[in-house]
From TrEMBL:
Keywords, alphabetical: DNA-binding
Species this chain originates from: Micromonospora rubida
Protein name: Helix-turn-helix domain-containing protein
The keyword DNA-binding is assigned to this record: yes
Residue stretches making up the HTH cro/C1-type domain: 15-70
Upper lineage: Bacteria, Bacillati, Actinomycetota, Actinomycetes, Micromonosporales
UniProt cross-references to CDD domains, sorted A to Z: HTH_XRE
Short name of one Pfam family: HTH_31
Domain of life, source organism: Bacteria
Keyword DNA-binding: yes
Length: 402
């Protein structure tokens, strides 16, 4: 005998279905609603209808589902639709090819290189503050402008072109679209070819895209090649910018090795990066890497989570976030780390601490939770736990994740 799918059940039966999924007795469910057990029983048997919007919303909140799910409507949450639209806007911007095809560039003038550099720097800062919707708004015109200036002046326009593509790739990885990010990072690598510093900078995003695409072996190999190409012959004489690029690439290689389950390579690469970080110090952001001793410690957490060492990851997280360097990292970097920390807490069967980490991430950079699919999935997972913080359950209900 086959069971009826929940989406085609009457509302009362659907309430009963989700109450069972949440492992709530009728009495506990009634208590959380401020209703009687008899009221719940009548609703579930269809004797009593849920005809008030406010009551429907209260029931949906307690069940930690979207009201549309309770009503059986086959709709996507608004945030999902918005994320899809965001990715499509960037995809369209990357698909224009005005310069290559000789199409009219419109009425926008070619900006001076200095002004273009300021606009790219502003976009980077906006990204690092995790204002992702704002970056989506900026990118279409920014990409058009950097492509025009590069066509008019390939020398002056090269750096802003590569940097704009780097921002685009990083954002698309955040939005869960590595396929489109691949297009942006490929263009960055091609534009950077011949300049070892620009190649190394673009390769940081290449590592992100390859890992997000599941190409971990290729990612590790490419990151090591890029790292050793930019590494100074004598580390002691290396300048902080090139040490930062080398170190950031080693971190990408370590994270790829962790995804592959190579404990030995992870330890070796992180220790190598730590030696470089000690010479760079915290509080810097050379080439938008945020590289330094604290960044290495955060990478240890992410790697430990990938390897399945939840206890080690939690210990390193709690130590790293007490460092002065933690406060100096961009909001995007800190919030992304807190997502890793939440995953670590879950591995140690501590959903309460996982929930607190997610709430702190939402406080620091709301878009990291609200616009990043991986974060929303984790939020839903934690919110389903009976011991999850109430504030987290309310956030999940607000965002329509369950």
């Amino acid at each position: 005998m086959t069971s009826t799918p929940p989406e085609v059940l009457p509302v009362g039966r659907r309430v009963a279905y989700w109450r069972g999924r949440r492992k709530l007795s009728q009495q506990v469910f009634a208590d959380r609603l401020g209703k009687s057990k008899s009221w719940v029983d009548k609703v579930e048997r269809g004797v009593r209808s849920l005809d008030k919007v406010s009551t429907l919303q209260e029931v949906a909140t307690v069940l930690r589902i979207d009201t549309a799910v309770l009503l059986g409507r086959d709709v996507q949450p608004a945030a999902v639709i918005e994320r899809t639209a965001e990715v499509e806007r960037i995809r369209a911007a990357l698909s224009r090819y005005e310069i290559a095809l000789g199409r009219p560039a419109g009425s926008r003038p070619v900006l001076p290189a200095v002004q273009m550099a300021r606009q790219v720097a502003h976009a980077w800062t906006t990204f690092q503050h995790a204002q992702y919707p704002r970056v989506v708004d900026l990118l279409p015109d920014l990409l058009a402008d950097v492509e025009r200036i590069h066509a008019a002046d390939p020398v002056a326009g090269r750096v802003p072109l590569v940097e704009a593509y780097r921002i685009t790739a990083s954002l698309l990885v955040k939005l869960g679209a590595p396929d489109v990010a691949w297009l942006a990072v490929d263009r960055a690598m091609i534009a950077a070819t011949g300049d070892r510093v620009l190649v190394a900078a673009a390769a940081v995003q290449l590592g992100q895209v390859l890992r997000a695409s599941g190409q971990v072996r290729v990612a590790k190999s490419a990151m090591l090649a890029a790292a050793y190409r930019i590494a100074p012959p004598v580390i002691e004489f290396g300048l902080p910018p090139e040490l930062s690029l080398c170190g950031a690439l080693l971190l990408q290689a370590a994270l790829a090795a962790a995804r592959h389950g190579d404990d030995a390579a992870v330890a070796e690469l992180l220790d190598e990066a730590a030696a470089l970080a000690a010479r760079v110090g915290d509080g810097h952001d050379h080439h938008r890497t945020g590289f330094g001793p604290t960044a290495v410690e955060l990478a240890r957490v992410a790697a430990a989570v990938e390897l399945g060492y939840g206890g080690d990851a939690v210990a390193w997280h709690e130590k790293a976030t007490t460092r002065d360097g933690w406060r100096w990292l961009p909001a995007e970097h800190r919030a992304a780390h807190l997502i890793d920390a939440a995953r670590a807490y879950l591995r140690t069967d501590d959903p309460v601490s996982a929930g607190r980490a997610l709430m702190e991430a939402d406080r620091i950079a709301p878009a990291e939770i609200r616009h990043r699919p991986a974060s929303r999935d984790l939020l839903a997972q934690v919110a389903r736990d009976p011991t999850a913080p109430t504030a987290l359950i309310q956030l999940a209900a607000t965002l329509g994740v369950s």
